[in-house]
Design goal:
Layout: H1 3-44, E1 51-55, H2 61-72, H3 74-83, E2 96-100, H4 106-114, E3 121-125, H5 131-141, H6 146-153, H7 156-159, H8 169-172, E4 176-180, H9 186-200, H10 203-211, H11 216-229, H12 233-248, H13 256-263, H14 300-307, E5 316-319, E6 327-330, H15 333-349
């Protein structure tokens, strides 16, 4: 090949390079456009509102689809499941509770579900008077039946690490808010709540209880009675001391709230002789000492008010006749009778039976 021919060929190839680049760039642009077209719904489709998605035990993809469709429509649900189509990423295998925020796309939802990024569930314990009601309320927030939680709380081996008996199970549930996963087992819930109980009963509080001649479990029972006797923070310590005085003197506590608990009737406003006949270990008019366990859940505040209370000589108390929710205290029976007569007169004047 002559030099002239080689130069012509080189020039031809050089002229063709821009053409190839144009074809390549055009092809790449088409691919990008197609990809954008295909991905557009997955990126731009957004959740309109926050929604709870629950994936129960033994769920399948259709159940996940139905849950998503309920809040975001079938197209959105289908896009989520298309992204999570690999077996290892199957959201149906990620049992849990997922609070999907507003303004996220199917890719974000799929990532949240397939990674098992659960949203904690908040359980609030606050003054439950019934063991069954409390366990029902907890179970309604989580993915297990109430009976499974009750069964564990009736097992002495489960409660013994906390120094409690099944009769004292309410003591474990310190009034507070707890965060657990929806998929948590009853044992995991008990451990979470039990850890808080152990934190409450540190060495300092245990020593203070021992000085009063009480165990932590007994303080919890006493605190539950105090909480039922009064909502007035300023007198809870005095009430606690009053009952401790009666315990030390071997006197019956004679607490009206324990009678209401024994009768399972918290609507009773005036405890009468008829009510006092109930044959229950929770009837502190008939049985000496503390009842077998708490009559409600109680919290750190009342426990500390009792443990840090000033000593007093009170052994009687009666609700004030002004219905303020506070009490008149007495150190002897004669003074107590005067207080009781004023209160009974006020009840009669208001027609309270």
């Amino acid at each position: 090949m002559t030099v002239e021919k080689r130069n012509n060929r080189r020039q031809t190839q050089q002229h063709n390079v821009p053409g190839r680049k144009i074809y390549l760039l055009s092809g790449l642009a088409v691919i990008i456009i197609l990809l954008l077209f295909l991905l557009f719904p997955f990126v731009m489709d957004k959740t309109k509102a926050e929604a709870p998605i629950r994936i129960p035990r033994n769920a399948d993809r259709e159940m996940v689809r139905d849950s998503l469709s309920k809040y975001y429509g079938e197209k959105f649900a289908e896009r989520v499941l298309k992204i999570a189509h690999f077996p290892d990423n199957d959201p149906a295998r990620r049992r849990g509770y997922y609070l999907i925020p507003a303004g996220v796309n199917p890719i974000s939802v799929a990532r949240r579900l397939t990674h098992g990024a659960q949203t904690p569930v908040r359980i609030t314990i606050n003054g439950f008077r019934s063991f069954d009601n409390m366990t029902e309320r907890i179970a309604s927030r989580l993915d297990f039946p109430a009976d499974s939680l009750r069964a564990l709380l009736k097992d002495p081996a489960v409660l013994s690490p906390y120094g409690l008996t099944p009769d004292q199970a309410l003591a474990l549930f310190v009034d507070d808010s707890y965060e657990v996963y929806w998929s948590a087992s009853p044992r995991e819930v008990i451990k979470k709540i039990g850890d808080n109980y152990k934190a409450l009963w540190n060495d300092s509080r245990q020593n203070k209880a021992a000085i009063l001649g009480l165990s932590p479990a007994e303080v919890m029972t006493l605190a539950s009675i105090v909480d039922e006797e009064s909502n007035a923070t300023q007198e809870k310590g005095a009430i606690g001391r009053l009952y401790i005085n009666r315990l030390h003197k071997k006197m019956k506590l004679q607490s009206d709230p324990t009678v209401r608990f024994a009768l399972n009737d918290f609507t009773i406003r005036r405890v009468t002789g008829k009510h006092l006949q109930v044959n229950s270990p929770y009837n502190t008019y008939r049985f000496a000492g503390l009842p077998p366990g708490p009559i409600r859940t109680t919290g750190k505040e009342t426990v500390d008010l009792i443990l840090n209370s000033e000593p007093n000589d009170y052994i009687f108390m009666c609700a004030k006749e002004d219905f303020s929710g506070t009490h008149n205290f007495a150190t002897n029976y004669e003074e107590h009778l005067q207080n009781a007569r004023r209160y009974q007169k006020a009840l009669d004047e208001r027609g309270i039976k």
